[in-house]
Design a protein that fits this description.
By secondary structure, this protein is an alpha+beta fold. It contains two helices and three strands, in the order H-H-E-E-E. Helices cover 52% and strands 23% of the residues. It has a three-stranded antiparallel sheet, with helices on one face.
Length: 77
């Protein structure tokens, strides 16, 4: 599996987990109904999900992660 594929998969898994968690919590603790419930979960998950990206360096291709809760960019090994 290439690093680009892993990055895409990590992005999807991070977003999907946060989306499901936020949707369930919003459903339990708010009065949102209809399109507003998944729309709210989408926006929150988009903002809170970690972002993964591959970069071509002189040492080869590397996978990096940036997240709201970490300072700076971290290399994923």
């Amino acid at each position: 599996m290439t690093l680009k594929t892993k990055g895409l998969l990590y992005n999807f898994i991070g977003f999907a987990l946060l989306f499901v968690i936020v949707r369930i919590v919003a459903e339990m603790f708010t009065n949102l109904t209809g399109i507003w419930l998944p729309l709210t979960a989408f926006v929150v998950a988009t903002l809170l999900a970690p972002k993964f990206q591959t970069v071509q360096t002189s040492e080869g291709e590397k996978l990096f992660m940036k997240w709201l809760f970490f300072k700076g960019v971290k290399e994923v090994k």
